[in-house]
Amino acid sequence: MLLLRSIVTIGGLTMVSRVLGFIRDMLIAAVIGAGPVADAFFVAFRLPNLFRALFAEGAFSAAFVPLFARKVEAEGEGQAVAFAEQALSVLLCALLLFLILFEIAMPLFIYVIAPGFADQPEQVTLAVELARITFPYLLFISLVSLMGGVLNSLGRFAAAAATPILLNLAMIGAALALVPFTPTAGHALAWGVAGAGAVQFLWLFYFCGREGLWLRLPRPRLTPEVRLLVRRALPVALGAGIYQVNLTINTALASWLPPGSVSYLFYADRVNQLPLGVVGIAVSTALLPLLARQLRAGHARAAMHSQNRALEFTLLLTLPAATGLIVLAQPVMSVLFERGAFGPAEAEATAMALAAYASGLPAYVLIKALTPGYFAREDTRTPVKVAGVCAVINVGLNLILMWPFSYVGIAVSTAIAFWVNAGALAVILWQRGHLAIDERLRARLPRVIAATAIMGGVCAALHLAVLGPWLDGDQLHRVAALAILIGAGLFTFALFAQLLGAAGIRDLRGFVKRPDAAA
What we know:
The protein is an all-alpha fold. It has 22 helices and no strands. The protein has helices at 2-32, 36-75, 77-104, 106-113, 121-134, 136-153, 158-161, 163-177, 185-210, 224-240, 242-254, 261-296, 300-327, 329-337, 344-358, 361-370, 372-375, 381-431, 439-466, 468-471, 475-500, 507-510. The longest helix is centred in the C-terminal third of the chain and has 51 residues, at 381-431.
């Protein structure tokens, strides 16, 4: 029950953050639209986000939490806190040096991350200004990651899970209150990002103190434990950040394209992230410990059954979600973002990027369902190698497709790279004898595809033949039309999934039930 309560707590707070994130993005679209200022801000925001994903929330937390938890178990909470304080001190010193370096050399890094700005000196100047404001966020969020790891190791999940909510609230406040007092709306949002980092740090510092863990700053020393932390964090960073690296490459290449291209990709990716995050993380988080337990117990058949059910559940959710986003991309973008500086032309342009990204949505979530098959067998290298190869493929396809298809070609390249990644992971598992598609999945998959196709046809028909005038009307009519379209899509898929035998209510137990032989 403790595990279930923790999952519900984290999942609920994550959903709140996602909802606030959409409100944040709608306000950003309203105040800066999709033009030179927006492009400069998104480039500036991408830089600290890249390093956050690489080091703070990815590699550092993955390396720190097991070491801290082991200290608690073996030597007691006092020694574990001493280790956390030493890690905090070393991390702070390293981050301060890193921050100073980047603040000084920011023009160079802007040319690296957005080389297409080189012919637009004013764009470079603005991006440098905004990046210098946002970059301290990396320092704060890295310290937040450490403190969150401490709390999570002690079974206190809520405070750390709520920190993304604070980022969204700070940026919402900046969009609503600071814009009249700054040179551009981009400056207001950049200060919102920097302020959010400070607020998140104070938030977790307080909650650590409430648990009696007022972390101090001793003289920084590279103790054996800190060295081990660094050694474990560096290789994990490579694997954890490949998706962010791909997005950063996309941003760099999009900067060569007409103004607004960076913004179109950003807004489209934000919408695509909802099913990616909710479904992908849920499947990966639930499957890994289950597979590990089954394999340690010698229940290979049960592990194969769990892997198949994870794939079945993933496709059952993501195929209709991807189809819905492709068919309804334009009304989704219109309802979410079309207001203020973000007009119909921007909504239409962003919808094309969303449709391209959504075509790779099932593949991305399949990757999340397949990688536990490696990690549960203590193979962390193969998924990283595959992802690295696919990153190279993504860059090559970008260079080929971005010129004839502009920013849409970049989104298509990302989707193709995801499918190659998922296919390679599946083939390697199959070659090793760790994946065999069972009879149930072979029978269900065509039925899921058929139900999805019918749902897509119904949504397209309603969109084009019935609700077109509403979608061209005022905001109230557009919201109502989108709600009808989504409701009709959900009802149609559920109905035909049941009629065709793709899934039923009784199957919910089957996704987690072991086969009899493994009992």
